[in-house]
């Protein structure tokens, strides 16, 4: 025994000594072709050390760079990702040693970065995107290379034929790259595609990325391009069907406003902000409230002695005092309305009136009246002498201290955080009252309109909406004979009214009256009432017929799509029942809106997504094969990758039904089957490969496509799973072959060209090292069905 250990130890010493005897380049050559993935990963990690070791020899440095290009072709994604993580460090080394290797980066490294941007593997793509941003931030890339090599690739990745994930990632990178490449390149290469993506109707993810980065894009291209090209797209995004897109617009509203002219800000953006702060979604309203002070600050003029203001060219001038919206407003000695710092009664005033660049706030002699005593000229150093970096020190900006939150509590607190606005009703009323004496000023009027809308919106979250909206509701209801204070029934009574209306059978004669009543019950009722109606609106549509439904119920239905999840679930559970009653043209419009059901207020609400998958199965019969391929297919594939196994299993059945729907069109079917093979059978995750086996089994059991089509397009990649390293995948494959395929005479016939391959695969599974694989490949339990078995054996680990 001791002798054996001595031999092994001696061999290890020999192995180590052999490595030590190799040159850095020889060691690189030894492991770069290793069959062991770990060794090739180590090669990628040690590239920088190797270059440093041979930095004195220009020829050997070039040899290492050539081997980097060879390593970039590695078939293993983890090796490619590891290599890409090292590229920025190697680029810095090349920059430091530029005299000896002047073209190293542009010749050897940059092509790899550009190529990996369109890599099929998600990890490699994301790593290359991060590397690209680092290279740009460190100014390691020549401007000409960025414009000629990187930018065209990013634009191509956002083409209509790109996959949704790639398109979304590329657009996010474009938005981050735009400020780095400057206005000229952005306007010529990025701006047309950005405008196009803002209107992408297929998937909301791209529109959400555009909305989130809209302000940055406006800041890059300047005011003229913003008003001519971007603002029309911004108006569309602010009225998007998906609340997440509207929320992103509310969050970037201040930067968009600062890039616009005062006239546009006053006449267009103020009314647009009002629509966001009055949005049906509480998340959009909350984001708008958080941006309220920032947006109001863009109306401020150069007369502000403290705080911040925006010049016409959208330059944000920061001074070292508070610039957030404040709680009280007073009249400045110069005659303009100002605001006082909330932390100090005697704080300085900030005028909110926009003046021309050459118009002073007040006469020079009176200028000091706008300043508090402690800020008037004295022997102390003036503010201009403060170091520039200190002007942006967060210590100088007043805010309520934010407590530190443990990471494990963030998710819980996010679900429980209050939706109350930043300012309460009393504070908003004070602001409006102080501004109203100056309402003749168009800018002040715009601010008053925005603040009034904010005041109205506070009622939506405070339970005061009935009292606040009573007068308007009374005026809009032609059947009301009551006084405004008595017009609206209580919440429980309104809920009973909804139930009564939905269970009535003889209401067709009074349909118009009922529809108006429903409309009023929806522009003022509590969410519980809307929820009751959402669960019953399909019954109303059945009573009213397609014409009255299109005229009166469709607008109500559309408002429910943007409502709270508690209301949307009622619409979703009867989505098929409602849409089937609509005319075909009206029904087809909802194809663009189905994707918004993927977004919920709480991402843990997996039952919402499961219900969506079940409804999509029913909706397949309402649409053509082309519509199913263009709109329902992306939703199904997205649901197949859900975090919750129950949603995924339901989605696999949806995929099999899509196969059935597309089987009538050969070109669409072949395209979809090829996509399934690429996304699932060749997936890096074992769960995706297992899903492919399950979809194949369902397609045969449910007769979703012909056996000839299955043998040609799905059987060859399915048989390849026999060599899968994960036993769970091989178990499901064995069940599929033994319990489903071999039950069909077609696969036992010698006419089938795949019979030999099928038999060889089954024999290989019967001799598998895993006992479960061997069992299911050898035995055919007559009472066991794959549908039940697959769920029982994999749901706990899948």
From TrEMBL:
HEAT repeats lie at residues 150-189, 230-268, 714-737. This is Protein phosphatase 4, regulatory subunit 1. GO terms for cellular component: cytoplasm. InterPro entries: ARM-like, ARM-type_fold, HEAT, HEAT_type_2, PP2A_Regulatory_Subunit_A. Pfam families: HEAT (PF02985). Keywords: Repeat. One of its GO terms (molecular function) is protein phosphatase regulator activity.
């Amino acid at each position: 025994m001791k002798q054996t250990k001595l031999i092994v130890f001696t061999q290890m010493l020999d192995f180590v000594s052999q490595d030590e005897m190799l040159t850095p380049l020889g060691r690189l050559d030894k492991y770069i072709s290793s069959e062991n993935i770990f060794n090739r990963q180590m090669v990628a990690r040690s590239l920088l050390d190797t270059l440093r070791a041979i930095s004195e020899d220009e020829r050997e440095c070039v040899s290492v760079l050539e081997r980097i290009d060879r390593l970039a072709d590695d078939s293993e994604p983890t090796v490619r990702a590891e290599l890409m993580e090292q590229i920025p460090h190697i680029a810095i080394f090349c920059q430091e040693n530029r005299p000896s290797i002047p073209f190293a980066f542009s010749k050897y490294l940059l092509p790899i970065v550009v190529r990996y941007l369109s890599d099929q593997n998600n990890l490699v793509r994301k790593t290359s995107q991060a590397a690209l941003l680092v290279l740009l931030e460190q100014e390691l890339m020549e401007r000409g290379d960025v414009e000629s090599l990187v930018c065209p690739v990013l634009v191509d990745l956002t083409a209509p034929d790109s996959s949704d994930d790639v398109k979304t990632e590329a657009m996010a990178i474009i938005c981050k790259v735009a400020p780095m490449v400057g206005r000229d390149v952005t306007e010529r290469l990025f701006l047309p595609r950005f405008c196009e993506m803002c209107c992408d109707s297929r998937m909301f993810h791209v529109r959400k990325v555009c909305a989130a980065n809209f302000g940055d894009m406006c800041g890059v291209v300047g005011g003229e391009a913003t008003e001519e090209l971007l603002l029309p797209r911004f108006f569309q995004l602010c009225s998007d069907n998906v609340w997440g897109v509207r929320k992103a617009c509310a969050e970037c509203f201040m930067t968009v406003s600062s890039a616009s002219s005062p006239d546009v800000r006053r006449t267009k953006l103020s009314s647009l902000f009002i629509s966001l702060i009055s949005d049906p979604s509480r998340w959009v309203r909350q984001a708008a409230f958080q941006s309220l002070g920032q947006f109001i600050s863009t109306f401020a003029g150069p007369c502000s002695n403290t705080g911040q203001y925006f010049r016409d060219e959208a330059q944000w001038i920061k001074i070292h005092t508070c610039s957030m919206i404040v709680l009280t407003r007073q009249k400045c000695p110069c005659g303009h309305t100002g605001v006082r710092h909330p932390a100090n009664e005697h704080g300085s005033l900030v005028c909110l009136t926009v003046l021309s660049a050459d118009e002073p706030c007040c006469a020079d002699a009176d200028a000091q009246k706008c300043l508090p005593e402690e800020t008037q000229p004295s022997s102390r150093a003036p503010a201009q002498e403060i170091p520039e970096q200190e002007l942006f020190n967060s210590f100088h900006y007043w805010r309520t201290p934010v407590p530190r939150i443990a990471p494990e509590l963030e998710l819980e607190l996010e679900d429980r955080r209050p939706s109350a606005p930043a300012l309460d009703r009393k504070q908003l009323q004070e602001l409006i009252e102080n501004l109203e004496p100056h309402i003749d000023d168009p800018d002040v009027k715009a601010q008053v309109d925005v603040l009034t809308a904010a005041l109205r919106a506070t009622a939506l979250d405070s339970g005061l909406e009935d009292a606040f909206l009573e007068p308007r509701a009374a005026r809009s209801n032609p059947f009301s004979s009551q006084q405004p204070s008595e017009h609206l029934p209580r919440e429980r009574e309104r809920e009973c009214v909804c139930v009564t209306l939905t269970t009535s059978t003889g209401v067709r004669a009074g349909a118009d009256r009922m529809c108006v009543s429903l409309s009023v019950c929806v522009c003022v009722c509590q969410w519980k009432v809307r929820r009751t109606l959402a669960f019953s609106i399909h019954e109303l549509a059945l009573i009213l017929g397609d014409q009255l439904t299109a005229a009166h119920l469709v607008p109500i239905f559309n408002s429910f799509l943007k409502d709270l999840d508690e209301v949307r679930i009622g619409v979703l559970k009867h989505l098929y029942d409602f849409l089937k009653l609509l005319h075909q043209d009206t029904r087809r419009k909802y194809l663009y809106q189905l994707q918004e059901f993927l977004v919920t207020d709480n991402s843990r609400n997996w039952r919402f997504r499961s219900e969506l998958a079940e409804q999509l199965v029913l909706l397949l019969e309402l649409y053509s094969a082309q519509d199913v391929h263009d709109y329902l297919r992306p939703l199904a594939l997205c649901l197949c990758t859900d975090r919750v196994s129950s949603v995924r299993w339901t989605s696999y059945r949806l995929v099999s039904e899509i196969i059935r729907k597309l089987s009538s069109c050969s070109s669409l079917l072949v395209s979809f089957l090829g996509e399934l093979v690429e996304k699932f059978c060749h997936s890096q995750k074992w769960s995706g490969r297992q899903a492919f086996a399950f979809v194949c089994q369902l397609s045969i059991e449910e007769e979703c496509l012909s056996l000839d089509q299955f043998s040609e397009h799905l059987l060859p990649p399915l048989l390849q799973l026999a060599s899968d390293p994960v036993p769970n995948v091989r178990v499901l494959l064995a069940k599929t072959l033994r319990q489903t395929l071999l039950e069909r005479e077609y696969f036992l016939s010698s006419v089938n060209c795949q019979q030999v391959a099928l038999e060889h695969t089954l024999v290989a599974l019967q001799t598998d090292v895993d006992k479960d694989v061997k069992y299911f490949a050898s035995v055919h339990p007559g009472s066991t069905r794959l549908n039940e078995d697959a769920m029982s054996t994999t749901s706990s680990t899948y």
